[in-house]
Amino acid sequence: MRAPSGLLGPRGLLPLALLCLLAAARGSLADGQPTVSPLTSVPIEEERITKYSNLSLESHNIPPTASPLTSLPIRGEMMTKYSNLSLESHNISLTASPLTSLPIRGEMMTKYSNLSLESHNISLTEHSNVPVEKNITLERPSNIELTCQITISRGVNSVNVTWKKGDELLENYLTNATGCILYAQYMFTIINSKQMGSYSCFFGGEKEQRGTFNFKVPEIHGKNKPLITYVGDSTVLMCKCQHCSPLHWTWYHSNGSVQVPIDVQMSEKYAINRTNANETRLKIMQLTEDNQGSYWCHAVFQLGESEERVQLVVLSYLVPLKPFLGIVVEVAILVAVILLCETYTQKKKKHIDDGKEFEQVEQLKSDDTNGVENNAPRHRKNESVSQ
User: Closest Cα partner for 301 from 227, 379, 217, 222?
Assistant: First the structure.
């Protein structure tokens, strides 16, 4: 029997054992039996792999119905083969009740285990008329655990619990009851600015009670009162963030409704001091009246932005003299009015005195005239008597 040419090795015929196997396979085909089974093909595959060991091996297997259980060994082999690649896992839960959502939150907390955990709680009463709010300052991504608790005297089973972010309904929360106290807990992770905002817990019953957690970035503090300086001087504007370190600071100048960024590289008039990470200082040199207006310091954080306004007023040196000049003018006007009044009074008094003196003179003249007329007849009478 002659072996087929496709099975010849580079050095001659195949070993005797391989020829026997081929003869057995041909005999089975002649008898009408099916093709070689996987068990009988194992030696041939081993020989072929040994012969072509310098080539890569590609294996493909398509099971007719591969269930998740039967695919586990394949996934394990694949994960071992591609261990240098990253793993992304996505899961969609159609009906996630508070109990079934625990593994999902546990996976999320494990994924972001390097982040810090922030725990906050709010206590409510069933007879409270005012919603309870709590402001939370958050600078960097964190795992958040929010808990609302309410004391119910009529029984906790009659209360419906709901969580919302703004107007959006939230799922995957926990509820627990201990005696007459009902707890509602919501856990999540804040990693960007879109997740900031207000998270509220609602306890519905005869009267709805609400507790709200307001998340915001740290506030920037500047000078509350306007900073007043003079033309030609230099001034320093400062903004500071308490117990926080912004990623970036930016200054803007607005003399109206438009904010213009200040570029210290393009102008020698400004200088920014960044000695401390939690504060920024803007120095303005050779001030003019055009430099007055509103200056905004803008801070950028990982979870959002914050800004503060500083008002600058630039005055000329004549401005402090204006009140003094006003006082001088008022005093001059007052003195002039007083002098005019005195002059008028003196003139009026003199006119009155002149009138009185004229009347006295006239009276004296009248008296002198009357005396002469009375003496003449008396003199004649005396003369007649003497005769």
Answer: 217
Q: Find the length of the chain.
A: 387
Q: Give the tokens for residue 140.
A: 């960097």
Cα distance between residue 174 and residue 185, in whole Å? 5
| Interval 169-206: pLDDT, tens | 998 899 998 888 999 999 999 999 999 999 999 998 77
Which residue stretches of the chain have pLDDT < 50?
1-15, 28-45, 49, 57, 59-76, 78-79, 86-104, 373, 376, 378-387
Three-class DSSP category at 379: helix
State how far the Cα of 44 lies from the Cα of 38, in Å rounded to an integer.
Answer: 10
Parallel, antiparallel or unpaired: strands 260-261 and 248-254: antiparallel
**Pairing relationship of beta strands 132-137 and 260-261 according to DSSP bridges:** unpaired
Q: Are 120 and 145 in contact (CB under 8 A)?
A: yes
| Cα angle: 215, vertex 218, 220; to 5 degrees | 140
Q: DSSP character for 9?
A: B
Q: Rounded CA gap, 243 and 218, in Å?
A: 9
DSSP string, 261-303: E--TTT-TTEEEE-SSTTEEEEEE-S--GGG-EEEEEEEEETT
- Please tell me whether the overall predicted TM-score, pTM, comes out greater than 0.85 for this model: no
- Report the SS3 class of residue 72: helix
Cα–Cα distance between 383 and 121 in angstroms, integer? 140
Single-letter code of the amino acid located at 203 = F
Question: pLDDT of 280-334, one tens digit each?
Answer: 999 999 999 889 899 999 999 999 999 999 999 998 877 767 777 888 888 999 9
The sign of the dihedral angle between the CA atoms of 202, 203, 209, 214 is: negative
